[in-house]
Structure formats: structure tokens, C-alpha cells
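Summary: Need help interpreting a holo structure output

Steps to reproduce:
1. Submit the protein chain below together with the SMILES for zinc ion.
2. Request a joint structure prediction with the ligand placed.
3. Inspect the C-alpha cell block that comes back.

Expected: a single structure record containing both the chain and the bound molecule.
Actual: see attached output.

Input attached:
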Amino acid sequence: MAIKEPESMDDLIYFTNRTIAEGKVTAWVYKGPCPKCKKGIMGKPRDEKTGKVKIRAKEYICSECGHSEEKDSFEETLICEAKYVCPKCNKAGEAEMPFKRKNVKIFNEEKQKDVSVKAVVFDCEHCGERIPITKKLK
Ligand SMILES: [Zn+2]
Ligand SMILES: [Zn+2]
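--- attached output ---
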């Protein structure tokens, strides 16, 4: 499996770098091509006044034809790539999975119990451990 590490944040819709117990995960998602014209790149719309990207926008817009897609369903068609050190076996690996958030239970240190969170999940290629990439905890 050969994954390409991102060179610029401009190519990405998602990037995260986090520590999970004894392991760590760096994950990212490249922007996808427009499903309609196949030429443009789908990105978040820009504010007409400031030109800044609307990070909280609920849709993606094609840079060429203006076609828009609903944020969550479009993201699920994209691939999330990750480099990691497994928290269980401590081996390094690479993974690719759909950028689809599932409900998973993870142990919350502060609350000392399992909590349900949305996460992109993949399996360690060495030991099969399920590794969740959760949203950043507040
Ligand atoms: Zn397009
Ligand atoms: Zn492992």
C-alpha cells in the first residue's frame, strides 16, 4: 500500500495528528474531484466579501462548474489515509478507509467510562486492533 503524504493543506479537506494511548495517528483526506464535470475540485465555498473559506459550510462546491454536494454524504465518498503507530502492538503502519464516521465506544479517561463518539475507524494491519480517529475532544 502506498499512500501519499500531503504536501499542502490546500489539497486537503481534513487533517489530524493525534496521540492514542501509546500510539499515534496522522490522518488526512484529499479534496475530491467534481462528480459532475470531473474537471473541478470540490472544496468549501468562499465568502463573497472576504474571500475566506467558509469552514463551517454544509456543502462543497466545484471550482469549475459550481456543482454542489451535501457535506456529509460527499465526504463519505472520499478516502481517508493514515499513518499510525498502533496503540496495542506499537508497530507502525499505513491505512486507507472511507471517510465515514461511525459511532464507536471509547474509554474516556476523565469520566472513567466508555463514551459513544463519532469516529473514522480502521484496523491495525499487524494485530487487527480497531483504531478510532475521533473528533478532537473538547
Ligand atoms: Zn464540476
Ligand atoms: Zn497493532
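--- end attachment ---

Reviewer comment: The two ends are 33 Å apart (CA to CA). The chain has one helix and ten strands.
Status: needs-info
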